[in-house]
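Protein record
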Amino acid sequence: MSSLPVICLLGPTASGKTHLAIELVQKFPLDIISVDSAMVYREMNIGTAKPDKYILNSAPHRLIDCVDPSEVYSAGRFCEEALEEINKSLARGRIPFLVGGTMLYFRALQCGLAKLPKANHELRNELSDRANREGWEVLHNELKKYDPKAAERIHEHDGIRIARALEVYYTTGIPLSEWQQQDIKKINPYHFYQLGILPSDRINLHKHIALRFKNMLTHGLIEEVQHLYNRGDLHTQLPSIRSVNYRQIWSYLKGEINHDQMCEQAVAATRQLAKRQITWLRTWPDLNVLEDEEDKKEKAIRLIDCFINERLPIKS
């Protein structure tokens, strides 16, 4: 097989991707490349479940701590930087190992980015004014009517993506989800081999999400967000501060909600994130599924071993 091997490990938040990836790195010549839209930001460690320095010493992760929280990191930029890291890894005679839960980044890297209509800044400003008066939840409900597929994948507080989806629909009359289904797959020299953690026990995942958030608080998550809050140059329209955990604690620090409400909303938002990620995974093409009730590590080792030896997709 002439195409170059790239292994992907996808999964919802709190499903054990990082732990499994670190174990696999000890077994195979893999270079971890993070596929996480929150871990790219510096000073955001606890709330993103970023690996600590001890883990990074034994299992380095590329594409974390790339930008300041004041910057906007796009899928296009991710693709450029990920391809650079993939080629560096292959040049060293190793195998790039893409690990994360930002499904849009995985899709953009493997299939390319759709050519969407140009921005309509006047319309976007109108939508922003409406959101200030009515709330993003109202506009999210509006999006459900015109583009339910996009609404399912966009959080009700993600103002930038809600506004963009409505802008595309109102400008063209075509839902954003249809634009994104264009035949945009590019011919490239890589063979992406897909492993996906797909939890079958939703209750157990929810328990793990709640416990993880509690541990984050114990390890100083509020203090981490307080540091960002005190900078004075960050706000809730930035993708960094809209990230799960950070958005809820930001509201708590502003006095908009109390501590109990903050905890409840953060856990609920993480559950919703996991649900959207699982929705992506259920229709992901050529996915070799690793389920809860099996030994994920042993199955992953077997699958990767066969892939490396044969350089061919195999049945899971």
About this structure: The radius of gyration is 20 Å. The mean pLDDT is 91. The chain has two domains: 4-113+184-310, 121-179. Residues 259-282 form the longest helix (24 residues).
